[in-house]
């Protein structure tokens, strides 16, 4: 492309984007598009490459056409080819070799892990708060109530010093788990063992705690999904760590986000066996449903988190009907270049095979993600109110007064 053909006039850029001149300049004011001065220093011109990128996003629509927010972060890097890194370390390798406590310390920028303990008063208040819920309340609803309740037990929760925020993070997650009803005896004081005892009525068998530990590590952070962005916005206005965590728990509970694992659990339990998988998939497709647990907006190939979790699920106990259904779904949906399983499929497969209480996948997802959103809060607090999104008004013309 020659230098002369690189630039577009205002009219050309607006036509290429299919918008009015006023909308084009609104893009400029919002930082979506850069405006450059022409050779005469008076006219405006636009970089053809930038305009084409914006046009492509708008043309594709859906997530591709959504507002993009880019934030510098030292925490997590996503490689669309199928890798995930925490502070430069491969998350899949960390899941195989490290512990929840050690990886949390890595994300929080600590030299070494420290005990995760909730105060006696926090445990007392949190347990009483969740116990007041109906017996039918979901486990994740109990977690949200616990987080809100234990915040009131910390009179200095507005201290933003990193060491204090990290201490709050450890004690908060310990309380969120420790205040839940205990279904079995914890195998150890490790975070993975404590959470297992709140989701399963039996003690873990060989390899199962390893899978729980890996799931929590793999789900701690994933760059900047909706729940993490919301949590960073809360931190930018100096919401305390409890409110930051609660923001992540609330936004992450959307059925298109952390709560989708419940839909995958239902999919796994629907076929009577491996031979019934094609029928179930076919009926769902005929109804125009999107199969939950398959495909990803970022990874172009395999979701590395799903790969790790499904490998661990295969090593949990003897193979049975569920294992055949899992393999059948992966095979049928993935046939002829179809979408690959994502982390929600791996998480739901783990929870169903382990015999966890219903909705446990969402609990594991969001408890783990509390580590990440509080790491993002530590990064965000020094910036102080840097988010100020603007809305592009498209309503009726304003009547002059």
Question: Can you offer a commentary on this structure?
Answer:
β4 (about 75-80) and β5 form a beta hairpin. The protein has about 400 residues and is mostly helical. The N and C termini lie far apart (about 50 Å). It is built from 18 helices and six strands. α7 (about 140-150) packs across α8, α7 (about 140-150) packs antiparallel against α12 (about 240-250) and α10 (about 210-220) runs antiparallel to α15. The longest helix is centred in the C-terminal third of the chain and has 21 residues, at about 360-380. It has a domain at about 5-60: Multidrug-efflux Transporter Regulator, Chain: A, Domain 2 (Orthogonal Bundle). Belongs to the citrate synthase family. Its EC number is 2.3.3.16. Pathway: Carbohydrate metabolism; tricarboxylic acid cycle.
Count of helical stretches: 18
Helix content: 40-55%
Radius of gyration: 24 Å
Give the strand order, joined by hyphens, for the main sheet: 1-3-2
CATH topology of the domain at 4-61: Multidrug-efflux Transporter Regulator, Chain: A, Domain 2
Content of β-strand? under 5%
- Using the alpha-carbon principal axes, give the shape: globular
Q: Which ranges are low-confidence, i.e. pLDDT below 50, for 5 or more consecutive residues?
A: 60-65
Order of helices and strands: EHHEEHEEEHHHHHHHHHHHHHHH
Under the CATH scheme, the architecture of the domain at 4-61 is: Orthogonal Bundle
Largest sheet: 3 strands, antiparallel
Highest CATH level, the class of the domain at 4-61? Mainly Alpha
Number of strands: 6
By secondary-structure content and strand pairing, the structural class works out as: mainly alpha
Family: Belongs to the citrate synthase family.
Enzyme class: transferase
Domain Helix-turn-helix: 7-57
InterPro entries: Citrate_synth-like_lrg_a-sub, Citrate_synth-like_sm_a-sub, Citrate_synthase, Citrate_synthase_AS, Citrate_synthase_sf, DNA-bd_dom_put_sf, HTH_17
């Amino acid at each position: 492309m020659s230098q002369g053909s690189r630039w577009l006039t205002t009219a050309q850029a607006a036509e290429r984007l299919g918008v009015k001149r006023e909308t084009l300049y609104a893009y400029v004011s919002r930082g979506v598009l850069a405006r450059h001065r022409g050779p005469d220093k008076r006219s405006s011109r636009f970089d053809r490459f930038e305009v084409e990128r914006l046009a492509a996003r708008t043309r594709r629509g859906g997530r591709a056409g959504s507002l993009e927010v880019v934030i510098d972060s030292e925490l997590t890097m996503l490689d669309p080819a199928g890798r995930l890194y925490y502070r430069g370390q491969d998350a899949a390798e960390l899941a195989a070799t490290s512990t929840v406590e050690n990886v949390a310390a890595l994300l929080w920028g600590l030299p070494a892990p420290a005990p995760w303990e909730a105060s006696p008063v926090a445990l007392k208040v949190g347990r009483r708060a969740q116990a007041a819920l109906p017996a039918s309340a979901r486990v994740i609803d109990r977690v949200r109530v616990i987080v809100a309740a234990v915040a009131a037990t910390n009179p200095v929760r507005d201290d933003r010093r990193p060491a204090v925020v990290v201490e709050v993070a450890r004690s908060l997650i310990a309380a969120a788990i420790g205040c839940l009803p205990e279904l079995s005896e914890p195998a150890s004081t490790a975070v993975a063992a404590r959470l297992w005892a709140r989701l399963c009525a039996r003690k873990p068998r060989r390899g199962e705690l390893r899978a729980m530990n890996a799931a929590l590590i793999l789900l701690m952070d994933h760059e900047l999904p909706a729940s993490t962005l919301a949590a960073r916005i809360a931190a930018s206005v100096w919401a305390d760590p409890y409110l930051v965590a609660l923001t992540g728990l609330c936004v992450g509970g959307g059925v298109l986000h952390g709560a989708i694992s419940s839909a995958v659990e239902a999919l796994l339990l629907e076929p009577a066996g491996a031979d019934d998988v094609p029928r179930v998939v076919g009926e769902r497709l005929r109804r125009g449903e999107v199969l939950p647990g398959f495909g990803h907006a970022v990874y172009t190939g395999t979701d590395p988190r799903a790969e790790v979790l499904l490998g661990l699920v295969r090593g949990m106990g003897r193979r049975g009907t569920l294992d055949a259904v899992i393999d059948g779904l992966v095979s049928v949906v993935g046939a002829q270049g179809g979408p690959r399983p994502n982390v929600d499929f791996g998480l739901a497969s783990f929870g169903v095979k382990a015999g966890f209480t219903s909705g446990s996948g969402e609990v594991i997802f969001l408890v783990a993600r509390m580590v990440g959103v509080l790491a993002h809060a530590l990064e965000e607090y020094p910036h102080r109110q840097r988010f100020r999104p603007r809305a592009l008004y498209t309503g009726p013309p304003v009547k002059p007064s």
